[in-house]
Amino acid sequence: MIAGIGVDIVELKRMKEVIEKNEKFIDRVLTTEERNLFDQLGEKRQVEFLGGRFACKEAFSKAYGTGIGKVKLTDVEVLREENGRPIVTKSPFEGKVHVSISHTEIMAIAQIILEND
């Protein structure tokens, strides 16, 4: 049974500006494992990665019904399977968490579906 659905969209230009102005923002958004993946990427891909992960975490907070604040951004971790598919590996939700991320040249979007077992 679906417990929640959330979606969020991020402008990549804005994400790039945030990274350039405040590098501490990266560590407020990414877990240690996510940061390890981020650090392996080129600049353009880093912006897409951070935008996508930020969108995932915002979408999660919407699906979970709390908004950011009660759930910290680092309470949710989105890594990737060997084939590149994103997977939520950590969250406060006890059921299944489904995630999808997509990018264009200017936007990143994520959708989260929470499913009770």
Automatic annotation (TrEMBL):
Cofactor(s) needed for function: Mg(2+)
Location(s), subcellular: Cytoplasm
Main subcellular location: cytoplasm
The enzyme's E.C. designation: 2.7.8.7
InterPro entries: 4-PPantetheinyl_Trfase_dom, 4-PPantetheinyl_Trfase_dom_sf, ACPS, Ppantetheine-prot_Trfase_dom
GO terms classed as biological process: fatty acid biosynthetic process
Location of the 4'-phosphopantetheinyl transferase domain: 4-102
Pfam families noted in UniProt: ACPS
Cross-referenced SUPFAM superfamilies: 4'-phosphopantetheinyl transferase (SSF56214)
Domain of life (superkingdom): Bacteria
Gene Ontology MF terms: holo-[acyl-carrier-protein] synthase activity; magnesium ion binding
Binding-site residues, Mg(2+): D8, E58
Reactions mediated catalytically: apo-[ACP] + CoA = holo-[ACP] + adenosine 3',5'-bisphosphate + H(+)
One Gene Ontology cellular component: cytoplasm
Entry keywords, A to Z: Cytoplasm, Fatty acid biosynthesis, Fatty acid metabolism, Lipid biosynthesis, Lipid metabolism, Magnesium, Metal-binding, Transferase
NCBIfam families: acpS, pantethn_trn
Role: Transfers the 4'-phosphopantetheine moiety from coenzyme A to a Ser of acyl-carrier-protein.
Record-linked HAMAP family: AcpS
Family: Belongs to the P-Pant transferase superfamily. AcpS family.
Protein name: Holo-[acyl-carrier-protein] synthase
Lineage, highest ranks first: Bacteria, Bacillati, Bacillota, Bacilli, Lactobacillales
